[in-house]
Design a protein that fits this description.
Blueprint: H1 2-12, E1 23-28, E2 31-36, H2 40-47, E3 53-56, E4 59-61, E5 66-67, E6 72-74, E7 84-86, E8 90-92, E9 104-106, E10 109-121, E11 124-126, E12 129-139, E13 142-144, E14 147-148, E15 151-152, E16 158-160, E17 162-165, E18 168-169, E19 172-174, E20 178-181, E21 184-188, E22 195-197, E23 200-204, E24 215-217, E25 220-222, E26 233-235, E27 238-240, E28 252-253, E29 257-258, H3 270-275, E30 301-307, E31 319-324
Parallel strand pairs: 3-6, 4-7, 5-8, 6-9, 7-10, 8-10, 9-11, 10-12, 11-13, 12-14, 12-15, 12-16, 13-17, 14-18, 15-19, 17-20, 18-21, 20-22, 21-23, 22-24, 23-25, 24-26, 25-27
Antiparallel strand pairs: 1-2, 1-3, 28-29, 30-31
Length: 327
Amino acid sequence: MKKLFLVLTVLLCCATSYAQQHVATLAHNGNVSIFYGVDAFKDAYNAAVSGDVICLSVGYFNRVEEIKKSITLRGSGCRGGQSTVIGNDIYVRIPSNETSTPLKIEGIKFTGRLYIDCVMQNPLFANCYLNALDFHNVFNGTVSNCFMNYLDGNNQSTIWNANFVNCVVSEIGDERNMNFVNCLLAYCSRCNGSVFTNCIMRRNYYDEQLDYTATANNCVYIGDRNDYFNNCVGSNNTIVSSADSIFVNNVIRDSWYFNVADTVSFELTPAAQTQYLGTDGTQVGIYGGMNPYTGLFSYPVINRMQVANKSTDDGQLNVEVEVTPAH
């Protein structure tokens, strides 16, 4: 019966939700290994090779100091009480000979800094909470449906086609040459060469105008700088004086930043949903566009799993599984 349990784990492609036990599963060439405890992620990672899939249950896991393999890492959520949490700083340093498959990280809450310190092809970060994301070098990367307390591109970075889609960023240190679509962005320090489409923006560095090398189309700026978009390239941009006029709940923290707490929905008022439209005719912000935020996952997530303590007299083992299907 243990074999059946392992097959179930592979098919669902997610760790069991033994929240108290901190479970990680490692899928490699059709075989599955299971690890337990707060070091389960570390143990699974150490046993993995590029192309493998690691799934984590709800709970707190100790970090690996460096990610040097192009794995797929999947958690059980990044917001609310049922989150997969990895603590402390992590450096992503994948060697060029390990990039045949892209790095994918989904459904994880990172409480430390995540440093991208290598050149990668098509990495994906989706449905994550990132306390701090630092790009030093990246190529063709996508960050989708994520909530970030701080984003820094580093003014010495070599960044090509880094795309942020339907994300909320509380503070940006340096976002040169990046693309933002249907994002919420606050306190932008620098934005040289960046493109903003269907975004909602809240104040920038010293409340200056958007840089003349930037492009903004169908964006909304919250603040009292009536000439905010005057220098940049673009069209159909709007200025509103208060976030309260377009959001259902309070989204501002400390006057300057967007509040990325779990309790904030970033939902627009019914009036704003029809008044402030993007280039595709859907609402600006994270609930519009081709990839609107839903909180759902592209892979099945096990919400609850209960296994009987012993088999029945005829050798059967009762297993109850509650699964949220892939979206």
